[in-house]
Amino acid sequence: DKPLVEVSDLGRIYDVSQPWLNRVIERTPRRLLVAAAGVTFTIGPRETFGLVGESGSGKSTLAKMVVGLVPPTSGEVKIDGVSMSRTADAAQRAKLRRRIQMIFQDPYASLNPRWRAEDIIAEPLEAFGMLKGREHKRERVAELLRLVSLDPADGKKYPHEFSGGQRQRIAIARALSSNPEFIVCDEPTSALDVSVQAQILNLMRDLQSQFGLTYLFISHNLAVVRHMATRIGVMYLGRIVEIAPARDLFKAPRHPYTRMLLDAIPDIQNTGKARKQIEGEIPNPITPPPGCTFHPRCPHVFDRCRKERPALLPAGTAQGATQVACHAVEEGRITVAPPLATTT
Ligand code: ATP
Ligand code: MG
């Protein structure tokens, strides 16, 4: 299958210098924060690509670049073969916008509190000129509310009259209104109770098969991503360190960081506690470690890791389905990252 989404060498640098400092101390060096660098992956039609990583690893920055809310400082995103970069054909990009939607983490912040649910849901339809009069709007909103298991009468209510889960259902209805093919979901259930989380995830899966949707599904929670994704990318300090089919990632994680994330998933069947805590701190992204940025936390570190940045290279057997950025894997020092010694 031809990919629907092609992300190539995408990067975003933020200038976090404090301009006032330049006036006090002359020629203070600029402080640059690399939020994302060299991010490359594709998503096939009807696929769910999961993206995991700790807080600050660059997931939201990447999500916003993919939908065009944040301009990249390098690289490019193509959707259905059309470049989303600001220098590309504006008419073609305008036609694409209807086909791409985003769902955010916080349904409290992402819904306008002064608008009725029906107007929130119909907003993309207005924006893209897809409405044919009031009756059409009423019918379409009722249909969308039913799709997310809400009552058409709920359209008259305001966001504060709904629960967190219901609000996220409205955000989903809104995202679906323009008949998109591709939806970027940035931690869509992270603000919800666990029982409500499962309902929303199942709804999203049902809608995916009903409408043939393609998802970029972002979460810091590997268990949630496992439930949703066909392939998973693992991010660390703005870079992808491993991409693998979901099943392989859980069965045979290759990057030592992936292993660390897996070991930190709570063992629900037995103790309910994480088998192993994630060790060490994420380095400051303004002054990242040289070489492999994970090397200060890595149990398999050797000389080369401190000097040379590893490239994301095919690993394993299945024709490049798995890619890993790790010198230890590349040199065959480790094939499947072994479990860390369990300490209690
Ligand atoms: P979280 O799990 O907390 O949502 P994340 O993986 O989504 O984290 P981002 O929000 O993409 O991470 O942030 C990545 C890095 O970029 C962080 O170090 C963050 O402080 C920085 N950053 C994000 N947005 C900006 C901005 N507008 N200006 C400066 N720095 C930013
Ligand atoms: Mg985020």
UniProtKB/TrEMBL annotation:
<keyword id="KW-0813">Transport</keyword>
<keyword id="KW-0067">ATP-binding</keyword>
<dbReference type="InterPro" id="IPR027417">
    <property type="entry name" value="P-loop_NTPase"/>
</dbReference>
<protein>
    <submittedName>
        <fullName>Oligopeptide transport ATP-binding protein OppF</fullName>
    </submittedName>
</protein>
<comment type="similarity">
    <text>Belongs to the ABC transporter superfamily.</text>
</comment>
<feature type="domain" description="ABC transporter">
    <location>
        <begin position="5"/>
        <end position="262"/>
    </location>
</feature>
<dbReference type="GO" id="GO:0005524">
    <property type="term" value="F:ATP binding"/>
</dbReference>
<comment type="function">
    <text>Involved in beta-(1--&gt;2)glucan export. Transmembrane domains (TMD) form a pore in the inner membrane and the ATP-binding domain (NBD) is responsible for energy generation.</text>
</comment>
<keyword id="KW-0547">Nucleotide-binding</keyword>
<dbReference type="GO" id="GO:0055085">
    <property type="term" value="P:transmembrane transport"/>
</dbReference>
<dbReference type="Pfam" id="PF08352">
    <property type="entry name" value="oligo_HPY"/>
</dbReference>
<dbReference type="GO" id="GO:0016887">
    <property type="term" value="F:ATP hydrolysis activity"/>
</dbReference>
<dbReference type="InterPro" id="IPR050319">
    <property type="entry name" value="ABC_transp_ATP-bind"/>
</dbReference>
<dbReference type="InterPro" id="IPR003593">
    <property type="entry name" value="AAA+_ATPase"/>
</dbReference>
<dbReference type="InterPro" id="IPR003439">
    <property type="entry name" value="ABC_transporter-like_ATP-bd"/>
</dbReference>
<dbReference type="InterPro" id="IPR013563">
    <property type="entry name" value="Oligopep_ABC_C"/>
</dbReference>
<dbReference type="Pfam" id="PF00005">
    <property type="entry name" value="ABC_tran"/>
</dbReference>
<dbReference type="GO" id="GO:0015833">
    <property type="term" value="P:peptide transport"/>
</dbReference>
<dbReference type="GO" id="GO:0005886">
    <property type="term" value="C:plasma membrane"/>
</dbReference>
<dbReference type="InterPro" id="IPR017871">
    <property type="entry name" value="ABC_transporter-like_CS"/>
</dbReference>
